[in-house]
Amino acid sequence: SSNEHKLNFKKSKEACLSYIQDALLQKQWKRAAEFLTCYVESLEKDYSRENIGPSEMIWRIGTEILWHHSHSSMKEFNCFMEQMKTLGVKRYLKVCLEHVFHLLCNGQIDEAYQNLSLAESWRFGEQTAIQDKEMKLIQAYRGLLDYYSWSKQKNILLEQGEDGFSDLAVEQEMHSCFRKAAVNLKEIIKIPGVWDVFVKCYVDLLEFYGDHNEACQVLNEYAYNSKFPANPNAHVYLYQFLKRQGESKKSLISALKILHDIVPSHELMIDFNIMLQKSKKKKKRRLGLEVIFAALDYSSWKENAKAWSCLARQVKRIVISEKHLDWIKQEWNSRKDWWPAFHFSRYVAKRNWQENKSLAYEKALVAGILLGKDCKYFKHVSHQGCKAQLKRFQMLKKFVNRHNPVYLRISG
Amino acid sequence: MEFPAALFPCYFGAGPPREEGGPSPVAGWGEHGQVLEGGPGRRQAQPAFVPRRGATGERWEAADAAAVPVLLPSAGCWIPSPAPQDILYRNGLCRKLQAGKSGATLDFAKQLGHFFVDHPEDAFGSLGRLLHKNFYLGSSKLKVIVSRNSTIRMTALVEDIDRLEARRGCPRQHLASRLRWFSHLCRDWLFEVPLGLLADCLHEELMLQWSNLLFDDSLTGGALVWLPFGEGGTPMGRLVHPGGQAMNHLYFQDVVLEELPRTRGSPAQFELSGRIRQVAAARVNGEDFVGVRSDYHCGVWRVPSRTGAAPTPLQVIRTDVPASCLTVSPHLPGELSVCTQSGTVYLWNIETGLQQLRCDPQTMFFRDHSPWRWSDFTAHPRVLSCADRTGLQCLDARAPKKCHFDLFKVGEEAGCQQGERVVLPMYLGTAHPSQYLVTTQFSVYVLDERLPLVPILKWAHMMKAPPLFAHLMPGNPGRSHKVLLGASCTQEILLLQYRASFWGVSSGGSQSACQLAGTPQKLHSITGCLQHLPTQLPHRHHLLQQRLTAPATGMAATLQEDGPHKSMLVFQLSEAGDVFCQRLTHKAAQPCAPPSRDETTTAPGSSPLFEAPASSPQGLDAAALRYRRWLRAFSKAYKEHPRHTWTPSLSQRRLFTRRDLEGPVGPSTLQRQMRQRLRQAMWEGGRIQCWEPLAVQPPPLLQTLEPAGGLDPLSARLTAAWAGDWDQWWEERTSFNVAQRQRALRERRRRQKRARGRRSLSASFTSSLTYQSELSELSDAGPQVVSPGRPPIFSQEGSPPAGSPPVRRPLTSPVPDEALLSSQSLRCRGIPKERRKTLRDYLSVLAEGAPEPPEPPGSQASQLCIPSSQSQLSSASQPCRKRPRMGF
């Protein structure tokens, strides 16, 4: 009966698919390709109502094979993609986008641009939400490519400018590129998402044309709109923009303070700490200590010599001045039960000494002040340093011995 | 580690997952996802783009065609956990119902019945004693005595029950009215245990077993760990794995990594009080801390990373509710995190004890029934992640109630599908301090805790079962990190590569976004070696298959660098306690010409084991030897425990009535002889190995079988059917009256044929003997000549030469005469031509009394396998198991 036939057909289809899958997972591209040619038959009697129909499977598998097959060429790939675009209306934009990505990765920027323009003009009935998103992405990528050609022409003009004459045609073209890019880029960054590349390019365009207010607004929106994910880069871009604009220390600090709140382990925290240490306000210096302590909590900072030297410098300054020892005490309180095992064990001391002597020096100073002169880390490093007759370490030993009562006040 | 200067673009939405769909077999192929400007090339006129997925990765190729056993199977016999057919109801009617509607029907009645049969004392103990006097079970009539009024005869009832059992599964099964009457009468008072309560408990247990069969999350994380010695680089390490029949022994086994991993010395062993579900480890300050989780106990060991240094048990905790997770801190020595199924998360420090971080039986983001919880460490030693099926949260151990943030949510944020659930989260600290791996049944995500909720990498893994195990092998700077995903019941292992950073020029050469490198690769599973093993006898093949298809319960791997040669060793542990291993070798990719790879020359996996890699003959031999030893130990383990195997027994009470069994008045001499033999066999506790009256007394049997006149129609038909000319017989019978004249002629022809038919029957029997002899010919011990003093047709249970050749030679004549071997005599015995030579060879070997050098048959020689060990076993076990049935 026809029902049975359908069932059998379905079964053999599934078997074929599993063979293909097996071959793909073992990187046997030729074998997979042979099976795929059989699987194409499944298009003829596509009764399936599944989410992913045979046409999508053929697109995905075929693409994967053509990426890796030793005899495939870009021409064949393009040809296959054109066929796949006609195979499913719902997937048209997605296939276009993937095609463009492949062209971009292979350096065929112009072809990619053409494809994007074509896809942008495509219309078919009402768009679904997903298609809408895909269309926006297509426009955004076109904007990105427009930006790149703008920046190319800008460079040409700048070079020519040095020579003293300018080309009007190039300039006009550059401006038209700017308009095209700006329109598309502006659209996508309104929608919640991660748009690092698009934001950067758009801000670059705006800055070039002197629209600093718009740029600032865009960056603020990207960083502080609660519908967007908490992207550290958004704050970094804002900080960098403010720095470029020569904004006041205060606004820079407030931008970094927010970054510190969301990502205490961000690499900009060293700059932040240095900036705060230089400040004359007590509150800011206090914040600086907090920032550097918090950063050193993270395992990624464990062997960061620069961060340890920041902490050592600040701690040393406090100890010498004997003012604000309570700051250290407060920070140390929540860490004294695990920092010794985490940072200041004998094993770590040995390793630090072997691998990075200046790191060992800074850490030993901090350990000596926080844990006293009997702490394992300090003892090991200062012993090794004195044995090697390094003057720095002898000084360190003297310093810690002299300030040992501080330790009692901190830990008490 | 610096944060990437630019991330791949993506949309961000909030709320429940919108995308419909389910598992798709191909969803992971053919997509770049997104592209980002990067890579060296910004200085040129055009920007260079890199894809999120589809960048070239490292090339790893399997060194062998299958995984190879590392450890010998343990001595005990493995008892497989229940299979679906054990607890599912199987009935024609039910199957029809099932086909229409999804959902399985559990065989509740059978399991309840098992309880009454297995624990009669608990079920009916005291009432049984009370009623003892009032129930009469004898077969004779009740005598009219004093107790007549208080005693009833139950024999008929018992017979009814027996009959019911005999007709189990029969569609025409009707309840006997007497049974129904009895159950109606005593249902309320007969059982010791309240029936409702018992049924509730049983039902609960059955549901639990069934859900475990569908998906057993107690195995999450895996129970196999590899601890390398020293700082890595040394080709030695320690394998920590569970073992023993109940998987309650913890072994620390030193292993040397050569071409194949080799165990060194005997393992340090600890007996624990529960089945080991998970073994986790982390290295802190040069020492390994190993956490072990069973249902109600968690323990921690400290293991110095030196050869021969003994592991020290440090502390054990007991939980009231089964623990579902145990992870070891990579930051602080002696710190672990424990989760229980009641939704409690503890930070466990061996010095300060347990600190409860969270206690919430509800799931975090939306309601899900699963009590599974997981927890792991993050880049901050005081911040732990907590997971349930709906997502991940990070909480600060110093203020767990106040300080927490959502790391991953099953929802639109991560672009999840409907019905997607977290299966295994893992901290990727050794590769990147702030990255996290989360697997679901559909996809695998990489998260960065600095950018929560938005996966920096997502890929549909297309595995058939959810990945319960994951293993990370961090790559050196500039190289890709390798992640292995492992599933339990399908034993799948998938190798993925990702790059946490590539050279982004736009940001001045700093970190750039995470991308998936290369294509995923499927590694060998334990089951995969089955097809490469030599052909087995069916029952042994079944045992082997059962053993090798046991669900995986753990996975471990290590990278080994020996100068320019890099290789990866992947270990897989099965529920039966087997540890198999495979080696992958790194092929240096040509940097300028990536399309030069051609799989025609090297197609891993497509070639059978032991035949392909001509490059490494040592490896080939070693692998074959490994298999040989493993198979031998495996068969030995099963031979030692024959009582586990089901011995066939058949009640004859219901098959024959007593009158049937009584037979004629005077038994014939043959019958007497048979009975005597039977009695002797029972007396000796042996079995009749070959019930062959023909051999004992050929002439009388021939006479009895050969009917003097015409047979009754049934026998005639059967005989004809055996001879293969049944249709002719039918024709003859229908045209019975046609020609009286031809009848005599046909009668003669039929007799001839019948005679031949009988011979070919016996020939088929002989051929099975020859098969046995072929096997024993290959065995190590060689065939042993049976002493003529004892009748060789009996074999005692415990006697070692159970596989003594069951030949007819000693029966027919004490010395093998030439006549026996002549082809003429063999032909007239009805032995087919092709078997005569084998039989002759075999008999001649016997005559010499010494084994010939084993000459493997052609088919086996090409496979280069292990003929001796298992054929010896099979020849030993085969007759023991099969023969008695033939006798009855």
Most extensive interface, chain pair and sizes? A-B, 73 and 77 residues
Note the overall shape of chain A: extended
Q: How many strands of chain A? A: 1
What does the main sheet of chain A amount to? Answer: none
Described by its quaternary structure, the protein is heterodimer
Helix/strand class of chain B: alpha+beta
Mean pLDDT level of chain A: 89
Alpha plus pi helix count of chain A: 22
Instruction: List the uncertain runs of chain B.
Output: 97-102, 503-510, 590-619, 643-648, 693-709, 758-821, 848-888
Helix content of chain A: over 70%
Number of helices of chain B: 22
What does this entry show, briefly?
Chain A is mostly helical. Among the domains of chain A are: about 100 residues; about 55 residues; about 100 residues, no CATH class. In chain A, helix 19 runs parallel beside helix 21.
Structural features, described:
The complex is a heterodimer of chains A (412) and B (888). Chain A has 412 residues and is mainly α. Among the domains of chain A are: 126-229; 248-301; 307-411, no CATH class. Chain A has helices at 2-25, 29-39, 54-68, 74-87, 92-105, 109-120, 129-163, 168-188, 196-208, 212-224, 232-244, 249-262, 269-278, 282-296, 305-321, 325-333, 339-343, 346-355, 357-371, 376-387, 391-402, 404-411; one strand at residues 193-194. The model of chain A has no long low-confidence stretch (mean pLDDT 89). Among the domains of chain B are: 52-81 and 465-503 and 511-588 and 619-641, no CATH class; 105-161 and 178-214, no CATH class. Chain B has 22 helices and 37 strands. Chain B has a 5-stranded mixed sheet, with no helix packed on it. In chain B, strands 5, 6, 33, 34 and 35 form a 5-stranded antiparallel sheet that branches. In chain B, a hairpin with a 7-residue loop joins strand 9 and strand 10. Chain B is globular, with a radius of gyration of 35 Å. Chain B starts with 9 loop residues before the first strand and ends with a helix. Chain A: One of its GO terms (biological process) is transcription by RNA polymerase I. Chain A: This is TAF1A polymerase. Chain A: InterPro entries: SL1/TIF-IB_Component, TAF1A. Chain A: Pfam families: TAF1_subA.
